[in-house]
Amino acid sequence: MEEIKVGLLGFGTIGAGVVKLLKQNSALLTEKTGTRISLKTIVDLDITTDRGVDTEGIILTRNADDVLTDPEISVIIELIGGYEPARSFALKAIAHGKHLVTANKALLAVHGEEIYAAAKENGVEVLFEAAVGGGIPVLSAIKGNMAGNRFSTVLGIVNGTCNYILTRMTQEGADFAEVLKSAQEMGYAEADPTFDIEGVDTAHKLCLLLSLCFGTRIDLKDVYSEGITSITSEDVDFAETFGYRIKLLAIGKMDGGKIEARVHPTMIPIDYPLADVHGVFNAVRLTGDFVGPVMFYGRGAGMEATASAVVGDIVDLSRSMCAGITRRCAPLGYLDGNVTTLPIKPMGEIVSKYYIRFQALDRPGVLARIAGALGARGISIASMLQSARSAADEVPIVIMTHEAREDDMRKALGEIDTFEVIRARSTFIRIEDNLE
Fold first, then answer.
1. CATH of the domain at 408
2. Are residues 307 and 293 in the same domain?
3. Residue among 98, 205, 247, 345 flagged as catalytic
């Protein structure tokens, strides 16, 4: 029986999950591929700590070249994360004729074009199902089963940390800082959670989704990113009052030949399926011209779910290799020469409905001044709510608008925030309730 030998870079949580799956389901994988998938070598700086998985028969080393240049190893799994040394290791593996399987969305969002070009030159494949949505098989579906569709939208809740925080704020009325601390203690958030809570991780994943859906190169710096640090329990409560929930949403839309590429807190209707994605779960919703709306839902992170996606890529490679096929599918699903660079729609041109919260002194004429400033920019009010006066003689005023241009909204709020009766910088959250 043919044997395909694999090397693993990175023996953290996900790496341990891969080892566990390959060992535990070895016979099943052979039944499905007709070959033995054998993990030969693991590379990590720490090769002494017990990960709670069986490593009998596997070489453990700190030297990456023991994997990258080993002629017996044909598939490299990169689970180091980050930009370097992951980029250098990936390129060296490819240069030695090895296929690459990675869960590293940051690496591909920033250096993907270089890695894909190197893979083409060396006749190997790059697979990265685990980079978006953990165990959810959304990328392979875009490249495979739904390849006959032109996509118009892709929306995603793809960061489990943020979704966990917003879920607890919604269900328990807890404050952001309190829930973040709890998430760190439970291991749902990193000690430095910046990439998660500021939307950077979600932007990395959106880059990959946009490239696969629209066949375009996406520069990370062109993706508008806004995190959840400014969301308060007050905003969560007001959202519920108006029939919405707040989610950190990755949004990609094709609009007149331009792409909307944005990540930010978003209010979506409570009765919409994405609003019911709670905790660390992820979901991606796609709209194709023939298939219509399709939603993928599942665990977006974790040892076993992510390992499932990594091993799925290895199985895909194994089947191709056993059939004597290389580069059966280009990394982005489009033939390399057909990947274009579509323009990104400037954020100021985005049209959306808005939730706005003002903290104002309770004085006659305040509402009229606010409405006048909004109206002067062509922004009309759909509904309004004013809460009870506080001890400081201040009231929160919440306004829901009809559709308006982002640039007009920002200019109007910039003017309103200068009013002497406004006691704090205004808060606004975009609303998405037309999601077809």
1. 3.30.70.260
2. no
3. 205
Active site residue 353: no
In this structure, are 173 and 84 located in the same domain? no
Tokens for 305, please give them: 């779910």
Cα 366 to its chain centre, rounded Å, is 40
DSSP string, 310-352: HHHHHHHHHHHHHTT---SS-TTSS-GGG-B-PPBPPGGG-EE
Domain containing 368: what range?
349-431
- Known binding-site residues equal 9-16, 105, 190
Q: Is residue 369 classed as helix, strand or coil in its secondary structure?
A: helix
Percent of the chain with pLDDT over 90: 82
CA 242 to chain centre: 27
CA distance 384 to 360: 14
Question: Residues 143-179: pLDDT tens digits?
Answer: 999 999 999 999 999 999 999 999 999 999 888 988 9
The share of the chain scoring above pLDDT 70, in percent, equals 98
Structure tokens at 68: 């990258």
CB 124 within 8 A of CB 100: yes
DSSP string, 276-301: G--TTEEEEEEEETTTEEEEEEEE-S
Binding residues for NADP(+), by number, are: 9-16
Q: Tell me, what DSSP letter sits at residue 69? A: T
pTM of the predicted model over 0.85: yes
Angle at 297 between CA 342 and CA 229, to 5 degrees: 70
Q: Binding site for L-homoserine: which residues?
A: 190
CATH number at residue 203: 3.30.360.10
Average pLDDT over residues 371-390: 87
Domains: count for the chain: 3
**CATH number of the structural domain spanning residue 65:** 3.40.50.720
Q: What residues contact 295, with CB distance under 8 A and at least 6 apart?
A: 273, 274, 283, 284, 285, 286
Task: Give yes or no: residues 218 and 151 share one domain.
Answer: yes
Residue 337 lies in a domain: no
Q: Kindly state the tokens that stand for 236.
A: 């969560």
What's the chain's average pLDDT?
93
- Tell me the angle at which helices 233-241 and 160-172 cross, rounded to the nearest 10 degrees: 70
